[in-house]
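> example.struct
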């Protein structure tokens, strides 16, 4: 049977398979879920529409869902994050309908989302909430059991929909699981963002003034890893508690207006809009490098940067130089899109193992309990979160203690003092 698809080139499939298998080695938790899914088929007959970065790790998630009996369709959650060989392999070698081409324009991007929706999914699986928001623009109301959401920005959008009473079905916030954001956002984004910057530019991080905008889960991972590579890290924040954490973690905290003057390398990871804008471009040093690792390409005001420039030239893959009217040069990486996915390979499989274990088990949970949930955003149940942590520790060969009966009693009582 022909597999519906729109990918760059099916002849890339063989390379894709090798890379998917390489990632698989580092995803023992997802593998163990896949083994159980293959035996128990908890997703039998369930149509899943997934809008995720089409990477080697996502391919392994798709295989786990398929093993569980799901009928999966995949489209990209970002126009620049698709790994074309992986998309080809998913179609040709694994029979999973996939719609994604690296570098696709806006029209094709949304046509791919519509292709995923045309499958009438029972479960939506999003990274950034584009699939759910497109679905909500449709007039017909269809019976969706529920959705899952992978990232901070998507959760913010979905909470806003729930608060306004327009969310049509329950969504589980995978991002809020401890086994997701404490590891994926912090260590995954932290490492892979610098990986993206280094692959794009081959710059030396040591000795640079690295300005990290946003000290959330991603930002703190990035700041820490930047420091590890020898950068002089400066943090920009708007939240007083996060700023205080950055100060006590030993970072210099400055407003962006001040950081703009001294930074060499700026990375935004806030989930916010126009964090770096006209007045900051105007104050920057010649030759500075800007990159973004937040979900959307709106954190750096690129339209204004374009207006301020007399010329733009591509210097290397993912490296564009804007020459301002006064002759100053500002370098922008990966068109301001997630630099870790556009210029590198995204998060390492070892950390996506936990994020995608959450996705798999959240889908199973929705099949079992979706009908009893309200049209709200729900956390991943604690038992699932802890089970994933235990499984991950086991696969890493790490054992931990258990509370004795006496300790359990002590920790749940108040009578005993000094
Ligand atoms: P978070 O909510 O933990 O942190 C965001 C931080 O940015 C907050 O501390 C907030 O106060 C700060 N912020 C907001 N506006 C700001 C401004 N104008 N200036 C300075 N700081 C500002 O979010 P998290 O989990 O760190 O995610 C950040 C972004 O990264 C989101 O868009 C998320 O979806 C995305 N993300 C990207 C990944 C990737 O692979 N590149 C992976 C995971 C998340």
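> example.seq
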């Amino acid at each position: 049977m022909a597999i519906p698809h729109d990918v760059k080139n099916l002849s890339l499939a063989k390379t894709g398979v090798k890379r998917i298998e390489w990632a698989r080695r580092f995803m023992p938790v997802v593998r163990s879920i896949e083994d159980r899914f293959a035996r128990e088929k908890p997703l039998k007959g369930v149509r899943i529409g997934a809008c995720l970065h089409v990477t080697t790790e996502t391919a392994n998630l798709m295989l786990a869902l398929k093993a569980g009996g799901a009928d999966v369709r995949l489209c990209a959650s970002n126009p620049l994050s698709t790994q074309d060989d992986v998309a080809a392999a998913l179609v040709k070698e694994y029979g999973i309908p996939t719609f994604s081409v690296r570098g696709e324009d806006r029209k094709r991007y949304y046509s791919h989302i519509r292709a995923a929706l045309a499958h009438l999914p029972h479960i939506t699986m999003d990274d950034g909430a584009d699939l759910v928001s497109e679905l909500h623009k449709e007039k017909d109301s269809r019976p969706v059991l529920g959705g899952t959401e992978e990232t901070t920005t998507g959760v913010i959008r979905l909470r806003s929909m729930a608060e306004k009473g327009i969310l049509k079905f329950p969504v589980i916030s995978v991002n809020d699981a401890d086994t997701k954001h404490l590891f994926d956002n912090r260590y995954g984004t932290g490492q892979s963002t610098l990986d993206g910057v280094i692959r794009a530019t081959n710059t030396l991080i040591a000795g640079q003034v690295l300005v990290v905008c946003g000290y959330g889960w991603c930002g703190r991972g990035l700041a820490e890893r930047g420091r590890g590579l020898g950068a002089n890290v400066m943090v920009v924040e708007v939240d007083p508690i996060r700023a205080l954490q950055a100060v006590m973690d030993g970072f210099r905290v400055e407003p962006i207006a001040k950081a703009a003057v001294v930074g060499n390398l700026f990375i935004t990871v806030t989930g916010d809009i126009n964090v770096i804008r006209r007045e900051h471009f105007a104050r920057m040093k010649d030759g500075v490098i800007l990159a973004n690792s937040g979900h959307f390409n709106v954190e750096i005001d690129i339209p204004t940067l374009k207006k301020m420039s007399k010329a733009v030239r591509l210097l290397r893959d993912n490296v564009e130089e804007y020459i301002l009217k006064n002759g100053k040069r500002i370098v922008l990486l990966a068109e301001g899109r997630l630099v870790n996915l556009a210029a590198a390979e995204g998060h390492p499989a070892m950390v996506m193992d936990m994020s995608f274990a959450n996705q798999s088990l959240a889908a199973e949970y929705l099949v079992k309990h979706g009908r009893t949930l309200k049209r709200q955003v729900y956390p991943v149940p604690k038992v699932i979160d802890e089970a994933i942590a235990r499984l991950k520790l086991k696969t890493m060969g790490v054992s931990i203690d258990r509370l004795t009966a006496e300790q359990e009693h002590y920790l749940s009582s108040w009578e005993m003092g000094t």
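> remarks
The pocket of NAI is lined by residues 151-153, 181, 185, 189, 213-219, 236-239, 242, 269-272, 275, 293-295, 338, 340-341 (CB under 6 Å).
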